[in-house]
Each structure stands twice: as structure tokens, then as C-alpha cells.
Amino acid sequence: MAFAGWEEGVAAFKSGNYAQAIAEFQQFVEERPDQQAGYQMLGRSLLRGGKAGDAVAAFQKAIEMKADDIGSQVLLGQAFYQSGKPRECISTLSRLNIGALPANIQVGVYETRGASYARLGNTGSAAADLGRVADLKPSDAAARFEYGQMLHSDAQLDPAIAAYERAISMDGSKSEWKKVLVNALKVKGRSTQGSGKAGIYRKAEDVARSLVGSSPSYDNLLLLGEVQLGGKNYDSAASTFQQAISKKRNDWHSHFYLGQAYGSLERFNDAEAPLNDALALASGEAERQVLDYLGFVLSKQNKYDPAISAYERAGNAAGAARVRENKQIAQENREADEFNENIAELERQREELRRQLEEVPGATNEPPRR
What we know:
By secondary structure, this protein is an all-alpha fold. The chain contains 19 helices and no strands. α6 runs antiparallel to α7 (103-119) and α15 runs antiparallel to α16 (268-281). The protein starts with 5 loop residues before the first helix and ends in an 11-residue tail after the last helix. The relative contact order is 0.03.
């Protein structure tokens, strides 16, 4: 292209001076409206200059003049996406024979279309496109991890976990990725029944331990303790939560979880103190959660009145009623025990009197006659 303004526009574009590039190419297409390349470069300059809405018209004109201009079609899809029109983006890019494009262009198309699907809430289609990106970039751990995130958003938990694990196997330096994997495994563990549950939590614990090994922070210790608690590894969980508390005492979570670990070990006396510590730090729904478990721990120690009070403060009327019933049963049992003890004592006294009468000469065990 040897036309006036073309070289100036290209130089401005390459140097990142998009305002000048836009001005040069705008003048160019006004003077040479028959040059399709001018509209494409104007669209590219507008797109780079943050004017995606204006770029749409330039790319549409370029495609009108040359229907097989794949580059302008791809860029039109990007312009639609950046201007907040995801449906138009999807429609434009879906008309392309994407598989016939060079691999690097395919990546851009799938990324843009996938982002448009995600913006519309179509996480399934978005995940499919990000899966294609990950396959086209087999050594890119980040692409594999992003694919896992979209699968996770689409509630495809098992494939998401597999994608997370593969990404971490490719690049194990990302602690945030490991945290995401542990939390995904926690969700799977909670929804799994039977023998498989323990294996899921063991896998989560292994990953969480690697996090603690690289950084024994409060958050990492709390995460490790949570998966130990979920996996019924209660002794280890109690130890981990104690370490977490030593790092940060003013967070109710670690105290509450420590109380739960002790409660699960049926060490109800030990559970009471950390639960009270948690109660002093919690508020709102968290406070009610702590009170509810505290009511359970107190009831297991037969501390009926404090248990009833805790349940009532937690808004658990059924729990409070259950403890009242247990208290009444316990009272009746005590009264029955006292009655039986009295009967036994009277029987003992009677036997003692009978023995004494037998030792008196001429005495008889028969009652006197009138």
C-alpha cells in the first residue's frame, strides 16, 4: 500500500499510538473507500484504542468488501465481545471453520467465544471452548487450570478436579491452585458416601499438607484441619487447629473447629472451652452455629440448663425441647433410683431386725397374736 497516510498509520499502530493511527486510517478510508485493508486497519486501531463499539462497523465494512477475510471476522468477534455484545460475538465466531485455522488463531477464537458463553451464563459451552484451548496448548498449565475452573462453575466437579490435578502436576508452584483443588475435594468428600469418602479426604489432606509444608500460615493450617475433620482424622485435626490458634487467636473458626474435633472424639469436657472462645469471637449466623454445637456438647455432659440456654440462643427449639425431655427423664430416673434405694434400705433393716430377733431366747419370727 503506497497511499498517503497508510505508512503513517501503520507506524503509529506499531508504536502504540492508537489515537494517531485511528486518525490516519479514518482519513485514509475517506479518501480511498475502495481499499478494504484500510477498514481492517481502522478497525484494529479502534479495537486497540479502546473503541470496540466503533471498531464493529469498520470490520463489518471490511467483511462486506471481502467476505472471505477471516482476520476481520475474528476481529469482529473480539470487537463484539469487548463492546458487551456476547451473543453477536458467538454468532460471528461460530460461522468460522475454526478447525481449519492456524492453531494460534484457534486459541484466540475459542478463548473469546468461551468468554462470551461465560458472560451469558452458559458455563457448559464455555467449558467446552476452554477445553479446546487447553488441548491446543498442552504444555500450558494455566490453560488447563482455567478449563478446570469453568468445569467447576458448570458443576462438572469430577472433570474439574481432574483438570486441577493435571495443571498442578504440570506446575506445582501455584499455592492458589492447590487451595482450589483442596476445596473442590472437600465439596466432593461431603457429597460422597461409603468407602470412597475417606480416599477423597486423604487426597485432599495430602495436598493441604504440601501447602502447610511450603507455608505454615494460619489459612493453610485451617484448610488442613478442615479436611482432617471431614476425613474423621480427629486427633490430627485437633493438633492442627491448636497450631492454627497459636498463629491467630482472634478468628472464631479455628476455636470452633477445635471444639468440633474434641466433640467428635467424645472429649466433651475439652470441647467446651474452645467453643466458648469461639462464641466470644463470633457474631450473627456464626454465633448461632457455635451456640448450637455448644448446646450439644453441654447436653452430653448432662449440663441440662446451660444446654437448653445455648440451644434457645441458637434458635434451635427442637434441641432445647430434646434436652428438657432428657432432663425430665434423668429426674425421673433419679427419683426411681432413690425409691429403689429406700426400698433396699428398708429390706436391709428388716433383715437386720429378723436376725436380731433370732438371737433373742424364746423369740419368734412370727408376728405377735392379738
